[in-house]
Amino acid sequence: MRRWRLAFMLAMAGMAQTRAAFGTDDETVQRLVSELQAMKQRLDKVEKLTAEQQQVIRQQSETIRQLSGTKRAATPAPIRVGTAPAAPASAPAPVEVAAAPPPAPSPAPWSPSQPIPLVSGSHAYLNLSFNSLVDFGWSTTPDVQSLERGDHDPIQRGFTLPNSEIVLDGAVDPYFRGVANLVFKLDENNDTDVELEEAYLVTTSLPWNLQAKAGQFLSEFGRVNLQHPHAWDFVDQPLVMGRIFGPEGLRNPGARLSWLVPTPFYSEFFAGVQDSQGASAYSFRNTEDDLFGRMPIDRSVQSLGDMLYVPRYVASFEPTDSQTIVAGLSGAFGPNASGSNTYTQIYGGDVYWKWKPAWQSGGFPFVSWQTEALGRRYQAGSGVVDPPATPLPHETLYDWGIYSQVLYGFTPRWVAGLRGDWVSGDHGQVAADDLQDRLRVSPNITFYPTEFSKIRLQYNYDHRQYQGDDSSVWMQVEFLLGAHAAHKF
Question: What pTM was computed for the model?
Answer without folding.
Answer: 0.75
